[in-house]
Amino acid sequence: MDPHFAIPLVNGLQLCYSLQGIPYFIFNLISDPLININAYFIPPKEGKKLQEYATFLGDIGVMIKSSKCSIAKCEQEIITKVKISAADRSVFVDGRNIAVKDKAVHVVTDMDVRDTTIEFGETFKKKRPYVVIELKQSGLAFKFQFTNEHLDLIVLDYSGISKHSHGIMGQFLRREVTIKDETLQLNDRSLKFKRRPTWDFLTSNKLCLHAISSHGYQAEGIIEGSYTDYIMDTLFSTNFKYRQFYLSV
Hints:
Layout: E1 4-8, E2 14-18, E3 26-31, E4 35-42, E5 56-69, E6 74-85, E7 90-93, E8 96-98, E9 105-107, E10 116-122, E11 129-135, E12 140-147, E13 150-157, E14 177-180, E15 183-186, E16 189-199, E17 205-211, E18 231-232
Parallel strand pairs: 2-17
Antiparallel strand pairs: 1-2, 3-4, 3-18, 4-5, 5-6, 6-7, 7-8, 9-10, 10-11, 11-12, 12-13, 14-15, 15-16, 16-17
């Protein structure tokens, strides 16, 4: 079942769960003071023998916040928008179409060059194009990999993410957790899980704590609130119940 989320936890393990969402709706994945990531959920292509409730990540919209700073002060808030589309494997940075075919190409946004780069390349084995967005000084890096007709989102570095980050994925990053037997305690939630291996797309099989939903396929009892709380109007919307990404007026 996709989307299937594998979230790195502070203790080195991964928390895995499924949230099917609704085809042709947009959901927030990560809302953080520095970055906002939304995803457009799509159904499988006709003819594919998958469960009727299967969905995938089709388009992803990323908003990155930075400030133009001098030695004395920060004068201007800069917002960079990145749209990644699985259907035609296109990438737009602030409306400019960027070629994905070239390996190891770095595109620097109009933000501080020391802080943010966008890298394009291909995985070594399967020649799958990918996009890496990295906020170097901020300790944030995410990999968006083109896989067949959809996208996979892989967290490379979350050391700089806020402990108050939210979203379907963001609410688990940098959170203190305790594990006893087959229960994971996270804030006010107790999640039952089964230990199983999973593929993490980067290295090899890792042990994953597969959280058990109270019922259905919408991560009930795993995520905070209801999956409908994370529905967004557009790929670059930021306003929802648990938002942490704000724009200055």
